[in-house]
Design a protein that fits this description.
- By secondary structure, the protein is α/β, with parallel strands linked by helices.
- The chain folds into three domains: 71 residues; 129 residues, Trna Endonuclease, Chain: A, domain 1, CATH 3.40.1350.10; 57 residues.
- Helices cover 48% and strands 18% of the residues.
- The chain has twelve helices and ten strands.
- The strands form three sheets. The protein has a five-stranded mixed sheet, sandwiched between helices.
- A hairpin with a 4-residue loop joins strand 4 and strand 5.
- The protein is globular.
């Protein structure tokens, strides 16, 4: 029998579970850390563990260590999940992020499209098309940790698609339509089973393996502007409201002199240096 850790961790949901070092190692690996740096980080964390430590406190200790000891891109990637959650409270910036990620993969996209179904009209978060495949996408965004996308979301996503698809098929029979649920958190087991059963495509933070939202962001370099901690929160909110949701979009806006009413010259200078470190596709 495997020995359980005497350290209890309090999750964001309020649930408690034994400390699992493997989870920390996996999160470090997903940020692209080398084995040596990951091992040193875990050793550092061991000296800061205490009974009933929160996941937030664990994140703080690891983040503090990485900021001083890891390559800057790995430090930013480790904070990626929280940075996406900081894009709220509305889901509109998340829809723009999803659209930009899919454009990088060769899709033509449109956001917030009002589409007629057989019974009623629907506002689709993102419609993406590549070749003869078109996806009607529901973007389910959460701005707090501890949430899982539940079965109700999957049910209405697929029901909406069925109503829209009944019209879309008659308009263009050469295009095959699909439904897609994209969320920045996890999904319940019930949602996973339902999606597998009805053919509803899904993308969560870490699923499908190697193709989750985290993987897509890191591979594309389309990191959210909320990673740039030198920008005051009120200015971040203004940028998000203008649709400047990624570092790539922010660099373009700076070079085109579109955000000089928000950011100072000193801020833009430091921002461009950080973007060069973390954003592959500028």
């Amino acid at each position: 029998m495997q020995n359980l850790s005497p350290i209890t961790v309090i999750k964001a949901s309020g649930n408690k579970e034994p400390y699992n070092e493997e989870k920390v190692i996996r999160s470090l690996a997903s940020a692209g850390l080398s084995l040596d740096t990951a091992s040193q980080t875990v050793d550092y964390l061991r000296h800061h563990l205490k009974s009933e430590i929160s996941t937030e406190a664990i994140y703080g200790h690891v983040s503090s260590y990485l900021q001083k000891n890891a390559p800057v891109e790995n430090y930013f990637n480790y904070g990626l999940k929280r940075a996406v959650m900081a894009m709220g409270p509305t889901g509109f910036p998340f829809e723009i992020l999803v659209s930009d990620l899919l454009k990088m993969e060769g899709y033509k996209t449109a956001i917030d499209v009002v589409t007629q179904g057989k019974c009623v009209t629907h506002e689709i978060d993102v419609i993406a098309q590549k070749g003869d495949e078109k996806y009607f996408i529901e973007c389910k965004y959460h701005n707090s940790p501890g949430y899982k996308t539940d079965i109700q979301v999957a049910l209405y996503t697929y029901a909406r698609f069925l109503d829209v698809n009944s019209i879309q098929e008659s308009l263009n029979q050469s295009v095959k339509n699909y439904s897609w649920l994209i969320t920045n958190t996890k999904i319940t087991t019930e949602v996973f089973d339902y999606c597998q059963c009805v053919g509803l495509r899904f993308t969560t933070w870490n699923l499908p393996h190697g193709r989750g939202l985290q993987d897509m962001i890191i591979a594309s370099g389309l990191h959210p502007v909320t990673l740039l901690h030198e920008i005051p929160k009120e200015k971040i909110n203004t940028l998000l409201s203008r649709g400047v949701v990624t570092c790539a979009r922010l660099k373009t806006a700076i070079l085109n002199k579109q955000v000089y009413d928000i950011l100072t010259k000193e801020e833009t200078s430091q921002i461009l240096k950080n973007i060069a470190n973390i954003c592959k596709n500028e």
